Amino acid sequence: MAEITILIAFLAGIVSFLSPCILPLVPAYLSFLAGTSVSDAKKKVVDKKKIIISSVFFVLGFSLIFSVVGVVLNSLLGSAAFDVRIWLSRIGGAVIIVFGLYLTGILRRALEALNINYLSQTHRLQPKRYGSSYLTSFVFGVAFAIGWTPCVGAILGGILTLAITEPASAFNLMLAYSLGIGIPFIVAGGFISQMAGFIVKYSGFMGKFTIVMGFVLIALGVLVMTGYIGAIAFFVPMGLGG
What is the pTM of this model? Predict the structure, then answer.
């Protein structure tokens, strides 16, 4: 069970990276971290090694925060009574379903009709620059984790809720989500000059990834809420052994 939910958390991180309001801004992120300009990045007039190292420090920043959240959840809820965990699963499963419905667009359209758009708002903390660009990158990563959630609130919320319902795996879930965002970010740092073309070419598919993740969260929420999440652990090996 833990392996499957960790995989889902990792995929959720990738979907967050590919979301329509993170991916198009990746060149700008990377340029800011490396202290260069987007135009120089497109012209390949950049220190690629510096960009990659800056990306690593950025990833370390938000991975640290997400991992700490996982440790805190494990510490606070790891020894919770059985009855408490059952209710956490029921409530958490329902919350995950809501996040999934939002990602598919079903709930989002209903909320927009009611002029409620909190989950689609951008919340940012802008860190100041420091003498070291790597320190700036690390602090920016911390700020990203704490308050920079453009369009990934529902995805991150779903994984956080899953971590609450599985406190023993909370650290691994949050770390997997961090790696899901972080690995593509570091790879993008190595290909920053090609990012603009990639974004233009594949921008039409990005929204579909989010919708698919929405349905995955809905299915996961149903399993968590009904207490059948453990069934995945038996179903997948059977399917692989097939």
Answer: 0.77
